[in-house]
Amino acid sequence: MNLFKFFSVIILLVFTSCNTVRVVSDYDRATNFDNYTSFAFFKPGIDKAKISDLDKKRILRAIQRNLMAKGMNKNSNPDILVSIFTKENQRVDIYQNNFGNQWGWDPYWRGSFNNAGNVSLNTEGSLFIDLIDAKTKELVWQGVGKSSLYNGNDIEKREERIRLIVSKILAQYPPFVSNE
Questions:
Q1: Is 148 in contact with 122 (CB distance < 8 Å)?
Q2: Rounded to a whole number, what is the largest CA-CA distance in the chain?
Q3: What are the angstrom distances between the C-alpha of 118 and each of 10, 113, 167?
Q4: Contact by Cβ (8 Å): 167, 127
Q5: How far apart are CA 23 and CA 88, in angstroms?
Q6: How far apart are CA 9 and CA 46, in angstroms?
Q7: CA distance 118 to 138
């Protein structure tokens, strides 16, 4: 593999990894999700989420769009209560570049590249979407999406990122429950 192709692959991996949304979900296996046809937002839980009110609105609009696309309707007497919470972490990535000696392209290598490294600081957020049975007040489904966050000034990019994260999380709802 020539050096140009190698760097192209590395750059592609770095940029695609920044856009990755990692999602997991969990649910109560005893729950019949077919019984849930309506939802409402659980304000006490949403108020505790530590993000801006504007981002809360963006998240709630994205959740509402996704649930309505699944045939659910927003209702004042719901089957499911939707709550969210968030976590934010700083992630430090250190990329060690040992190209000089390893690839043999510098016959006069004097160690100048051996310890060269790049440090990248990224903000990674986690969005938790909780679905709570309105009658029993028990958590029946939880989806979590982890992703790098967009912190720029472009509102459209921010909204697009939030819509992507929410849709990836809710793609796992309702869970596929086998009859075995």
A1: yes
A2: 75
A3: 13, 12, 33
A4: no
A5: 15
A6: 41
A7: 46
Q: Which two tokens stand for residue 35?
A: 């019984």
Tokens of 95: 């990329």
Nearest to 18 by CA among 117, 121, 94: 121
Tokens representing residue 89 in the block: 């972490």
Return the residue matching tokens 């019949």.
32
- Of the candidate CATH numbers 3.30.160, 1.10.1060, 1.10.287, 3.40.50, the domain formed by 3-170 belongs to 3.30.160
| Intra-chain end-to-end CA distance of the chain, in Å | 48
For every one of its 180 residues, what pLDDT tens digit does the chain have, with 9 covering 90 and above? 554 444 444 443 344 445 699 999 999 999 999 999 999 999 999 999 989 999 999 999 999 999 999 999 999 999 999 999 999 876 666 766 555 445 555 555 555 444 556 777 667 899 999 999 999 999 999 999 999 888 889 999 999 999 999 999 999 999 986 655
Tokens describing residue 52: 């801006």
For the chain, give every domain's residue range.
3-170
CB 35: neighbour CB atoms within 10 A? Answer: 9
Q: Report helix, strand or coil for 33.
A: helix
